[in-house]
Amino acid sequence: MTSRHFPVFLVSMLKQLILLGGRNWWLSFLLWIVLVGPAQAATQLRVAIQEGVSRVQVGSSTRAIVRDSTGQEIGELEALNAFNAQGGGGNVALGQLRSHQLWIEPTDNGFVWIGDRWYRGRTQLVPTGKGLVAVNYVDLEQYLYSVLGAEMSASWPLEALKAQAVAARTYALYKRATGGNSVFDVGDTTQWQVYKGLETEAKSTHQAVESTAGQVLTYGGQPILAVFHASSGGHTENVEDIWRQSQSLPYLRGVADYDMGTPNFEWTKSLSRSELSRKISGVGSVISMTPESTTPQGRIVTMLVQGDRGTRHVSGSDLRSALGLKSTLFVVNSDGNNGFQIQGRGYGHGLGLSQWGARNLAAQGTNYQQILGHYYQSATLSQLQS
Prior knowledge:
The protein has 386 residues and is α+β, with helices and mostly antiparallel strands. The chain contains eleven helices and 24 strands.
């Protein structure tokens, strides 16, 4: 089978862990995660790492078994080599190996390589009408080791990390039940929650996950929509005020936040009139921008944009995307020099857990149960049944 070796630094990293583990804290950690055996699988999650691609690079840190769609062993992959898998004609080809689906299963608790990162678990390659999908089958708790470090700084107080662990576990299960499909349960981007494999694991994220193992937030006996964001700018929102199509949910109500003084509590962005006019089409040169409808906390629902060639009613979310803003909690003022200054607060949609608020509360001695109870009022902290 034709293969391509991994970049030299990746191979060296894995081969020299034992020799170099004591010299640097990060090498010590890598050695630690290599030697720690996987937790007993309770809930397996299917995470789409690559979706709709013509080919994807795959591999394993140890010798790996390749199986076809029936589960029969049809080949092996040598350790620390990268192989290009490609889809076509309803099949997946990996060198001379071909099947309707392919599985890559590392031996000896090895890790899989998908695209450009290492992951725990195993890999499934599935051809679809939109291209090849590479899915990481991983234990839910091990998945969270990575999510925590990708969504929150691993150096933050442990109680904040625990709160994030419960929220992320709950969110993954909610999305698996409501947004998954026949191929995968969740993706790995901010559209779902960020997952980067071993790259974002740390001892603190392991500790936070393991000390809250199996804990989820429920309402009516079911996992809640445990959304979260970086910071709200002083107060979170009711879900129906942000997502107008959503019904009122008793656990996603606006509450006072504790994010004052954090990096994105307040922010500004300046744009020239010509820049603003290029980003908002259909009105010519922008003259003014006036809030037309806002949430109770002041987030823009719709903005009336007036130009020298017409007017438009633009949603706050569309403006945020077009102008590259951190939130929809902003006002726009003319700066008197043929330009505009946008003054805003917060980062994200403002629903559910505020990560910077959680961090500040934890730093003040608030425990994770209290943090979760504040941001997800009316939800119950429950234990998954094994």
